Amino acid sequence: STGHIPSMFAVILRTKARIVRINEFEPVELTCIIHFASTYNLRIEWKKIRNGIPSYVYYRRKIVGDLENRAQLREPASMLIFNATRTDTAEYRCEVAYNDGSGEFDEIKINLEVRVKPVEPQCSVPKAVTVGMAAELQCLENEGFPAPVYRWFRNNEELPQDPKNSPKFINATYTMNTSTGSLKFHRVRKEDAGEYHCQAKNDAGHAHCPANLMEVHDVDILAIILKSVGGVIAALFVISSIWCFASRVYASKKARNENE
What we know:
Elements: E1 12-14, E2 19-23, E3 28-30, E4 33-36, E5 42-50, E6 53-59, E7 62-63, E8 71-74, E9 78-81, E10 90-98, E11 105-115, E12 122-124, E13 128-130, E14 135-140, E15 149-154, E16 157-158, E17 174-177, E18 182-185, E19 194-202, E20 205-208, E21 212-217, H1 221-259
Family: Belongs to the immunoglobulin superfamily.
Pfam family, one: Ig_3
InterPro entries: Ig-like_dom, Ig-like_dom_sf, Ig-like_fold, Ig_sub, Ig_sub2, JAM-C
């Protein structure tokens, strides 16, 4: 016999995991197990689908595309990626069929998620605010995948996401958005002064920015009064200057009329 495989010999594939999560630069194996098939005259292909667009990564018995030199096929059909990068996050499809034209075929889809550790976030902390005024602290990190969760610390003590759930912070007026990194004080208190830093964290790791001091000043009543008095004095000075100028003009005009 030339080895023609009857179509009744179906191809059935299995995998150890349809969803695989690893950290960046780690090795990973995408398992495509030929559960049922003759090993004779099989065609094995792997495709990578990103944003709905497929591309070959194993074709005609060799690794191609962006995995070239970074992966190998483990017999009979699994694929090992030596050092996965963030660009390898995608859906992978293992396709196995007979080469005899019988049409017997099966495929396995595996979703690979390559997690990326956050880098040092960019933090914005006001240097000084006045008691009773509003203030906003901001934290932003763009590298981590999946998107990190943000936490804020004051003097190395973590602030609760909702201050009303903590007896120590129950009088605080801030709201924290752990998705955007925003920490908003609606009315700053003296107790809110301190060194603030933010942490960005996901499943791959975490990073934080250096601590920045936020000072809280009392309302300076004397300065407000002096400023108000200064404004009144300035206004009186302008008025008196206009009056003096008008008086001189009037006197000069009157003297001219008398001479005439």
